[in-house]
């Protein structure tokens, strides 16, 4: 590793229940090749929310994430998996809380439904890419990213929304990924990027993300629900959560052995990802057919993980990554569009959105014309005398 780095960290005061927690990120020059990469680590990360339910503690707080520990390195993808409600989004939100994070795709779609795919990506390219980059190059990058996400046949299709069918749910998801990948961010957080995609599309989209991750040495952390075996095989590290606890963080290929050693071997012909999720799901205690009580399984695995060699290795890796030192490589400024460009692009986008949106522009225009006409006719042929004004006004009212 070279010596240059960007560094930031959040290490709040140790909490009496959760212990100390720390999120740490360094951007280092890699292998002296001139390119840089972001190293992200999180240790003993806990999140509690105020709650009035029975599971809250005496202070009215419910723990939704406990002692989460892990790391992510350039050129690699960490997959966060676990049953619904286990804390995947909470972990990603906590990591995204770093002021330095570059790109975060949440579960909510934030797309302007009146624009086409091409317009959406072009506008985003103009706003996000460095002002030093020529416009032709920005458009070229936008076209390439659209093709990489397999949206080239829908370039001129409107996103669609209220009353207008446009892109499908999966296509919208791919478009959202496009917008995040445009800048080749050093750190990319994705929350359920595959939702709405069929298994083949999921594989193609994820393998393209892997390709870009390796090509641009991006650091990627993604929450994912139910990856197929092929998609699962693309991840470098796996973070398994249940009830807010980390049951496993380590190499994806080593998870099978961890489960087998602790009494939950993956049956032959079953997808490992499915097996892990079925084993640690606590939502359907009565219907479970694996013969174990889910809460006990979580306890056994959480304890086994903390005394495993994989956990020790994770701790060693985090210590190494946190110890990286160096200098600032580049300032954050200079990467965005200039103020003038931002004004022009946003005005053009807003104008297009307004005149294509029936409710937003045309309906309002109709209402204002009708209102103007009504107000105008109030004084029609009113006369010029004082009496005519008062009589006419009384009549009209
Ligand atoms: N701000 C909050 N206030 C109250 N409860 C919260 C808050 N944030 C998260 N939670 C609770 O924490 C738990 C974990 O939520 P989270 O969204 O992280 O789960 P998830 O694993 O991403 O679920 P899914 O896979 O269904 O999206 C849920 O029970 C949720 O209700």
UniProtKB/TrEMBL annotation:
It is a multi-pass membrane protein. It holds the Pfam family ABC_tran. It is found in: Membrane. GO terms for molecular function: ABC-type transporter activity; ATP binding; ATP hydrolysis activity. Residues 47-268 form the ABC transporter domain. Keywords: ATP-binding, Membrane, Nucleotide-binding, Transmembrane, Transmembrane helix, Transport. SMART domains: AAA (SM00382). One of its GO terms (cellular component) is membrane. The chain crosses the membrane at residues 361-380. PANTHER family: ABC TRANSPORTER G FAMILY MEMBER 11, OS09G0472100 PROTEIN. Belongs to the ABC transporter superfamily. ABCG family. Eye pigment precursor importer (TC 3.A.1.204) subfamily. This is ABC transporter domain-containing protein. It comes from Ambrosia artemisiifolia.
